[in-house]
Specification:
Elements lengths: L7 E2 L5 E2 L2 H104 L8 E6 L22 E6 L3 E6 L2 H8 L3 E6 L2 E32 L7 H12 L9 E7 L4 E6 L3 H7 L3 E6 L2 E32 L7 H13 L8 E7 L5 E6 L7
Antiparallel strand pairs: 1-2, 3-7, 4-13, 5-11, 5-12, 6-7, 7-9, 7-11, 8-9, 10-11
Length: about 375
Amino acid sequence: MSHQDFSLVTTNGEELSTPLDKVKQEIEKQKVTYAKLCAEQRELSKDKDSLLDLTEKFQKSMVTLRNNRDEEEKEQTQGLEKYKNRMKALQEEESRLRVEVQKVEEELHHFERLNHQLKQQTQMCAAVPEKTVVFTGDVDVGAGAGTGARACSFDMKARIVYPMEEGTALVTFEDEEVAQKIMSVEQQGIIFGDCMIRLQVKPVQFLVPSHIKMDTHVCPRRILVSNLPKKVEESRLMDRLEIYFQKKRNGGGEVESIDILPDSGSVVITFVEENVAKSLTGTEYHEVDIEKKKHRLRVTPFLNGEVTDLQMRTSVSRRTVLLTGIPDIMDRDSMQDSLEIFFQKGGNGGGEVDAIFYNPVGHSTLAVFEEDCPHKE
């Protein structure tokens, strides 16, 4: 009989447990516990896998969110940069338009002054019938007018207002050939101490009248009085003229206004009625009592004029050059003196400087060109 078949039996027939049986029972209990632990382990493993999967999804979501945030920040940065560039471009455009508006206004003011001067030129003393007068450049008497028209000429002194941009200079030489030689070089290198700057050399161009057409006629209500005494107080003179020319016995009538023509020594008298002017101009010279003394005044018809055609042409200065691109590296006086010294040296291709003006960066100014003699600036 083997050891496994050995067992103990009580007197009443019950089987008695042995140590081996207890071990078996314990093993069975442990098997059950092990099975439970395995089941729990499987559950834990399943929960772990779920957590790992959730963590992986969360990490992917974080990466996606981070990428989206970075992309949004990048787009915002790019959008802000574009906005800044757009604002800068708009500010530059605004500045450019302001400069253009200023130039146009200055040119408009110049043309208005020119038109005013031309109108004053037409207020000349000449008893002529109503005619069309044409002025074409520098014309002689009889040139530029059609058949039946009377040609006239005016001596006009050119006065051109030239707007200067910032960082530029105008240099006028006494010798025209020097200016032309300087303008033949588009870039001019100028040394200041240990550094050298390169400036652009450009010609100075203007718009000037080339053809003027005017319609003129004798004004029926105005006369021009000249040969006035020079040492009589203006208000006193006006009073005496008004008293004389409003009297019927002198051929006058009711005076509407008296205006002095600047720098001409003449006055324009306007009457209320139209026939008075014609009556007075029938006698060219009138003896008028002024300051208890007789003065021989000349009375002539007043000629009205209206510009009906104005054509312009481009004119280039022969003695002045324009320097552009001057950096803001020293004060105005020092830069102007340095430029003048440089362009006065024959070794630099320069010559005697008649005038120079430097307009620094950040400034705006106007240069005035006046004609001191015919065909010369």
